């Protein structure tokens, strides 16, 4: 996870240098692919050799600048109750 956090900090720094609004950045695409594993060895005591196991990968991250910052819901609105009633009606009609 440290690699991903470091990559996000680097991407934020690059966006700031490019003149983009850092507060409006959105992760548009992220992809992790396994890289070719090199055959490395760890030399041990008494002439023994063990394989050096690592998991190299390629990380691809695209950031895009969103239209605006997400808005907080208003205090008087309750979305949860209306969403549950809609879901229960939908489930009831499809269950027949």
Automatic annotation (TrEMBL):
Where is region (Disordered) located?
A: 68-96
The UniProt keyword set, sorted, is:
Ribonucleoprotein, Ribosomal protein
Gene Ontology CC annotation, any one: cytosolic large ribosomal subunit
Which InterPro entries does the entry link to? Ribosomal_uL22, Ribosomal_uL22_CS, Ribosomal_uL22_euk/arc, Ribosomal_uL22_sf
Q: Which residues form a coiled coil?
A: none
Please, which domain of life does this record's source organism belong to? Answer: Eukaryota
Provide any one GO MF term from the record: structural constituent of ribosome
Which biological process terms from the Gene Ontology are attached to this UniProt entry? Answer: cytoplasmic translation
Give the compositionally biased regions (Basic and acidic residues): 72-85
Q: Which family does it belong to?
A: Belongs to the universal ribosomal protein uL22 family.
Q: Which PANTHER family match?
A: 60S RIBOSOMAL PROTEIN L17
UniProt protein name = Large ribosomal subunit protein uL22
Q: Which organism is it from?
A: Hister sp. APV-2005
Q: Which gene encodes it?
A: rpL17e
């Amino acid at each position: 996870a440290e690699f991903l956090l470091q990559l996000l900090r680097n991407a934020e720094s690059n966006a700031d240098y490019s003149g983009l609004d850092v507060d409006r950045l959105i992760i548009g695409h992220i992809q992790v692919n396994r890289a070719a594993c090199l055959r490395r060895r760890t030399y041990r005591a008494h002439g023994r050799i063990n394989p050096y196991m690592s998991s190299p990968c390629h990380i691809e991250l695209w950031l895009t600048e969103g239209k605006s910052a997400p808005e907080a819901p208003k205090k008087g609105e309750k979305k949860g109750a209306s969403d549950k009633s809609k879901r229960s009606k939908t489930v009831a009609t499809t269950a027949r």
